[in-house]
Amino acid sequence: MRGTVRGGRGEGGGLGALGREITKFGVVGGLGLVVNFGVFNLFRLCTPLSTVQCGLAGTGVAVVVNYLGYRYFTYRDRDKSGVAREFSLFVLFSAASLTIENGGLYAALHWFGWDTALQDNLVKALGIAVATVFRFWSYRTWVFRLSPPAEEPT
User: pTM of this prediction?
Assistant: First the structure.
Protein backbone atom coordinates (compact mmCIF):
# COMPACT_ATOMS: atom_id res chain seq x y z
CA MET A 1 0.00 0.00 0.00
CA ARG A 2 1.28 3.46 -0.85
CA GLY A 3 2.40 5.68 2.01
CA THR A 4 3.33 2.77 4.25
CA VAL A 5 6.66 3.03 5.98
CA ARG A 6 8.60 -0.23 5.84
CA GLY A 7 9.20 -1.45 9.38
CA GLY A 8 7.01 1.27 10.83
CA ARG A 9 4.25 1.19 13.37
CA GLY A 10 1.60 2.40 10.98
CA GLU A 11 -0.30 0.37 8.44
CA GLY A 12 1.47 -2.86 7.66
CA GLY A 13 3.66 -2.54 10.76
CA GLY A 14 2.44 -5.24 13.10
CA LEU A 15 4.44 -7.51 15.32
CA GLY A 16 6.76 -8.67 12.55
CA ALA A 17 7.89 -5.10 11.89
CA LEU A 18 8.34 -4.49 15.61
CA GLY A 19 10.41 -7.67 15.84
CA ARG A 20 12.64 -6.53 12.97
CA GLU A 21 13.00 -3.11 14.59
CA ILE A 22 13.96 -4.65 17.93
CA THR A 23 16.47 -6.94 16.19
CA LYS A 24 18.10 -4.03 14.33
CA PHE A 25 18.08 -1.95 17.51
CA GLY A 26 19.79 -4.87 19.28
CA VAL A 27 22.47 -5.24 16.60
CA VAL A 28 23.38 -1.55 16.79
CA GLY A 29 23.09 -1.62 20.56
CA GLY A 30 25.35 -4.68 20.71
CA LEU A 31 28.03 -2.83 18.76
CA GLY A 32 27.57 0.14 21.09
CA LEU A 33 27.86 -2.20 24.07
CA VAL A 34 31.22 -3.52 22.84
CA VAL A 35 32.43 0.05 22.27
CA ASN A 36 31.10 1.19 25.66
CA PHE A 37 32.73 -1.60 27.66
CA GLY A 38 35.90 -1.43 25.57
CA VAL A 39 36.43 2.29 26.15
CA PHE A 40 35.36 1.98 29.82
CA ASN A 41 37.84 -0.78 30.58
CA LEU A 42 40.62 0.71 28.45
CA PHE A 43 40.30 4.02 30.29
CA ARG A 44 39.97 2.22 33.64
CA LEU A 45 43.24 0.36 33.04
CA CYS A 46 45.27 3.02 31.22
CA THR A 47 44.27 6.38 32.70
CA PRO A 48 44.13 7.97 36.13
CA LEU A 49 40.43 8.84 35.57
CA SER A 50 37.87 7.81 38.18
CA THR A 51 35.53 4.88 37.55
CA VAL A 52 32.64 7.25 36.90
CA GLN A 53 34.71 9.34 34.46
CA CYS A 54 35.68 6.16 32.61
CA GLY A 55 32.00 5.20 32.48
CA LEU A 56 31.07 8.57 31.05
CA ALA A 57 33.81 8.30 28.41
CA GLY A 58 32.63 4.84 27.35
CA THR A 59 29.03 5.95 27.15
CA GLY A 60 29.94 9.11 25.23
CA VAL A 61 31.85 7.26 22.52
CA ALA A 62 29.08 4.64 22.27
CA VAL A 63 26.45 7.38 21.81
CA VAL A 64 28.19 8.58 18.64
CA VAL A 65 28.55 5.04 17.27
CA ASN A 66 24.92 4.28 18.10
CA TYR A 67 23.56 7.44 16.46
CA LEU A 68 25.25 6.52 13.20
CA GLY A 69 23.99 2.93 13.43
CA TYR A 70 20.42 3.90 14.28
CA ARG A 71 20.19 6.63 11.64
CA TYR A 72 21.75 4.65 8.79
CA PHE A 73 20.67 1.09 9.66
CA THR A 74 17.85 0.67 12.18
CA TYR A 75 15.81 3.75 11.25
CA ARG A 76 17.11 4.48 7.75
CA ASP A 77 13.55 4.51 6.39
CA ARG A 78 12.31 7.10 8.87
CA ASP A 79 11.75 10.81 8.29
CA LYS A 80 15.02 12.64 7.55
CA SER A 81 13.58 16.12 7.11
CA GLY A 82 14.61 17.44 10.54
CA VAL A 83 18.13 16.13 11.10
CA ALA A 84 19.08 18.97 13.48
CA ARG A 85 15.95 18.32 15.57
CA GLU A 86 16.58 14.59 15.43
CA PHE A 87 20.20 14.88 16.54
CA SER A 88 19.32 17.34 19.32
CA LEU A 89 16.68 14.97 20.69
CA PHE A 90 19.08 12.04 20.32
CA VAL A 91 21.68 13.87 22.42
CA LEU A 92 19.04 14.87 25.00
CA PHE A 93 17.72 11.32 25.44
CA SER A 94 21.26 9.94 25.35
CA ALA A 95 22.20 12.31 28.18
CA ALA A 96 19.24 11.01 30.19
CA SER A 97 20.37 7.44 29.42
CA LEU A 98 23.92 8.32 30.39
CA THR A 99 22.59 9.50 33.76
CA ILE A 100 20.58 6.31 34.23
CA GLU A 101 23.52 4.13 33.19
CA ASN A 102 26.30 5.85 35.13
CA GLY A 103 24.23 6.87 38.14
CA GLY A 104 24.52 3.25 39.23
CA LEU A 105 28.32 3.43 39.00
CA TYR A 106 28.31 6.58 41.09
CA ALA A 107 26.04 5.01 43.72
CA ALA A 108 28.03 1.77 43.83
CA LEU A 109 31.30 3.63 44.28
CA HIS A 110 30.28 6.44 46.61
CA TRP A 111 27.47 4.88 48.62
CA PHE A 112 28.57 1.24 48.82
CA GLY A 113 32.33 1.47 48.27
CA TRP A 114 32.25 -1.07 45.44
CA ASP A 115 35.22 -0.54 43.14
CA THR A 116 36.63 -3.83 41.92
CA ALA A 117 36.72 -4.50 38.19
CA LEU A 118 34.02 -7.18 38.57
CA GLN A 119 31.73 -4.97 40.64
CA ASP A 120 32.20 -2.01 38.27
CA ASN A 121 31.39 -4.10 35.21
CA LEU A 122 28.34 -5.77 36.81
CA VAL A 123 26.92 -2.42 37.92
CA LYS A 124 27.65 -0.92 34.50
CA ALA A 125 25.88 -3.87 32.80
CA LEU A 126 22.78 -3.38 34.98
CA GLY A 127 22.77 0.35 34.20
CA ILE A 128 23.07 -0.35 30.49
CA ALA A 129 20.14 -2.79 30.63
CA VAL A 130 17.85 -0.25 32.31
CA ALA A 131 19.01 2.58 30.02
CA THR A 132 18.47 0.40 26.92
CA VAL A 133 14.76 0.07 27.62
CA PHE A 134 14.53 3.85 28.00
CA ARG A 135 16.54 4.41 24.79
CA PHE A 136 14.39 2.07 22.71
CA TRP A 137 11.20 3.81 23.81
CA SER A 138 12.53 7.37 23.47
CA TYR A 139 14.36 6.93 20.17
CA ARG A 140 11.49 5.23 18.35
CA THR A 141 8.87 7.56 19.84
CA TRP A 142 10.57 10.96 19.69
CA VAL A 143 13.82 10.87 17.72
CA PHE A 144 13.43 8.67 14.64
CA ARG A 145 9.83 9.48 13.79
CA LEU A 146 7.84 7.89 11.01
CA SER A 147 7.70 9.74 7.73
CA PRO A 148 4.39 11.46 7.11
CA PRO A 149 2.18 9.31 4.89
CA ALA A 150 2.46 10.12 1.20
CA GLU A 151 -0.68 11.71 -0.17
CA GLU A 152 -2.68 9.54 -2.50
CA PRO A 153 -3.03 11.01 -6.00
CA THR A 154 -6.57 12.07 -6.76
Answer: 0.74
Q: Is residue 47 part of a domain?
A: yes
Share the mean pLDDT of the chain.
Answer: 86
> Torsion angle, CA of 135/38/84/103, rounded to 10 degrees?
50
What is the distance between the alpha carbons of residues 11 and 3, in angstroms, rounded to a whole number? 9
DSSP string, 87-116: HHHHHHHHHHHHHHHHHHHHHHHHTT---S
Closest CA to 130 of 110, 103, 91: 103
Establish if 4 belongs to a structural domain. no
Secondary structure (3-state) at 125: helix
Q: How far apart are the C-alpha atoms of 78 and 102, rounded to whole Å?
A: 30
